[in-house]
Fold:
Amino acid sequence: RCEALSLFEQEIDADAALERLKALENSGKASLSFFGLVLCALARAFHEQPALNRYVMGRRIYQRRHVAITFSGQVSPGASAPVYLRKKRFPAGESTLDAGNGIFREVHRGRAGATSGGDRFLRAFLRLPWPVGSLLMRFARALDHCNLIPARWVLAHPLHASAFVANLGSVGIPSAYHPLYEHGAIPLALVVGELRESISVCAEGHAGARHRCTLKYSYDGRIAEAAECARFAARVKVLLEDPELLAPDDTRIAGEAGSPLPCSKPEVPCHTTDDASL
Structure:
């Protein structure tokens, strides 16, 4: 996966998104941050362009039937605060309000120290004697290589997801590239940088301050061509700079849950998977 790593960055004009978030906050309908809006835009882009919602296991490329995004955050403010991972599923047709409320619940659980099934399994695994743990890990890697990990474990594991998203803007960092883990099946990592003000000149020649944010992508080049990834990132940018496109009336999109998704690289064996095996 590291040998096929591709990196690129993107500048987002965040003024329209911030205005949309302020309107939602004033209406009391949802508690959504800019980071949450990025997750919603990313999920929408995955549904609209399923060629990026794939993963490589062994020598095959598999197509996912649903979108699940893992994101990280800090339990509390401070450089030494522990980091939590939460994984949320984004059904096709989910409104921004419902997605925002779901993200808020997951963030609350993460900050409260709530453990998932994967956390409990990992803690039990770490209690084993190291020879036993080493043998089990080799066996698990062999199963993972053949895409035979039990569905219950895969559904709970944060590194089996459509994407991994980190919010470095929350700790005041402009942005950075995130690695793709060899373990698991995440083909795309996204880092959201700090919101900052910059001076821009509009078409009429007037200068003014605009809020901008840098997104940095790391993706597995084996799952799709660079042009497809560029179209995917361009769609994320459009959704963030025109957040009205994420309104509830515009949420019925291609790739309904349970329907087979097309594989756009016929020269590569591509196998669709169901919810049980991802």
